[in-house]
Design goal:
Elements (H helix, E strand, L loop, with lengths): L3 E5 L3 E4 L7 H11 L2 E4 L10 H12 L9 E7 L6 H10 L2 E6 L19 H10 L2 E4 L13 H16 L4 E4 L5 H9 L4 E5 L1 H5 L2 H5 L16 H11 L6 E3 L8 H4 L14 H11 L6 H12 L8 E10 L4 E3 L2 E3 L7 E7 L2
Parallel strand pairs: 2-3, 3-4, 4-5, 5-6, 6-7, 7-8, 8-9
Antiparallel strand pairs: 1-10, 10-13, 11-12
Helix pairs in contact: 3-4, 6-9
Length: 346
């Protein structure tokens, strides 16, 4: 039985830090565990170009703890008006790692997202030539497509075509939620990988809906049925290099979650690595956690592994019921839940 695990400091390849006062909470939380984090660009005013990314990065770094070496890795937000110049300048910047596709209306602050994906083929070609990463929010948003089917439809309608037309374009299918996505990524080539969140490993749609609606489990892409959850657990804990850690941690004050039209997103950075440890431990796969959390993503993004290490110990503790946030509070993922794994702080 494993009671302690030391591993290379992990990275988070998908996180929402928000902006303004939110950075007081989100940046120290990210720096607690991770060496680097891919910062999502869907602010109220999206991060559309290198200048936007530079100023956002500067705002983030002002909140980094003084003794921390954590680095934010920046991403551009694809719109209908993204130009080849935007992509070439991103490549030259040295601090922009990827470009993110959101279908318009798919999730929080996605109103500026792409309306017709096929029109972006020249931009996809420029991303391929620049050796940047294309990150995909892999859902369609047609009102006639059931919300539980939108990821699978995206793969069949769009991703297969993109892969065929741009065979060397490096793609991360973000926060996958279905067996179709896991299997498609596994069966594809080295240019396609996927991130998996803690909420999609820990929960399924029954947890969110059965016996009453639990708004703090509402996220997009939405939780799916248990057969998909089991397939995600299998993929994450398999040792495959094609899957890696991306929390999709996304804070909202509790009032905006517990409302007539609640916001999508789960805040998980209060216990990010512990959540994954719970899943890997239950799957008898702790020996694969370091690769999933610390190696696979860095290798796909062609970045060096972090030099420092962190240690997890098997020590029961309870997640707080709420966390102060932006003059109010947020309800963290798994609030009040007992966990068996805990980060050992220096």
């Amino acid at each position: 039985m494993v009671n302690q695990l030391t591993l290379i400091r992990p990275d988070d390849w998908h996180v929402h830090l928000r902006d303004g006062d939110a950075l007081d909470t989100t940046v120290p939380a990210a720096a607690k565990y991770f060496g680097r984090s891919i910062i999502m660009p869907n602010l109220k005013l999206p991060v559309r170009n290198v200048n936007d990314a530079l100023f956002y990065r500067q705002r983030i770094l002002r909140h980094r703890p003084k003794d921390s070496q954590w680095l934010p890795l920046m991403v551009l937000y694809l719109t209908d008006d993204t130009s080849k110049k935007d992509i070439s300048e991103a490549k030259k910047s040295g601090f922009v790692q990827a470009v993110k596709y959101y279908p318009a209306g798919a999730t929080t602050n996605s109103a500026s997202g792409v309306t017709q994906l096929e029109r972006l083929d020249p931009i996809f070609n420029e991303i391929q030539e620049s050796n940047l990463i294309l990150q995909l929010h892999g859902e369609v948003t047609d009102q006639n497509i059931d919300i539980f089917d939108r990821e699978a439809v995206f793969i069949d309608r769009h991703l297969r075509r993109i892969k065929e037309k741009f065979p060397e374009l490096k793609i991360v299918l973000e926060h996958i939620t279905t067996s179709q996505a896991a299997q498609y990524v596994e069966e594809n080539d080295q240019y396609l990988a996927a991130t998996i969140t803690p909420q999609h490993l820990l929960y399924n749609r029954n947890d969110m809906l059965a016996g009453g609606i639990r708004p703090h489990l509402y996220c997009l892409p939405i939780l799916k049925r248990d057969i998909h959850q089991k397939e995600l657990i299998r993929a994450a804990t398999s040792g495959s290099k094609k899957f890696f850690l991306g929390t999709d941690s996304a804070p909202h004050v509790s009032e905006t979650k517990e409302s007539a039209c609640g916001c999508a997103g789960c805040f998980s950075h209060h216990a990010a690595l512990e959540f994954y440890a719970e899943v890997f431990d239950q799957a008898d796969a702790m020996h694969h956690l370091e690769a999933f959390a610390s190696i696979n993503g860095a290798q796909f993004y062609q970045l060096p592994l972090n030099k420092s290490k962190i240690t997890l110990v098997k020590e029961p503790w309870t997640i707080p019921e709420e966390i102060p946030f932006c003059g109010s509070q947020l309800i963290p993922l798994a609030a009040g839940m007992a966990l068996n794994w805990k980060l050992r702080l220096p």
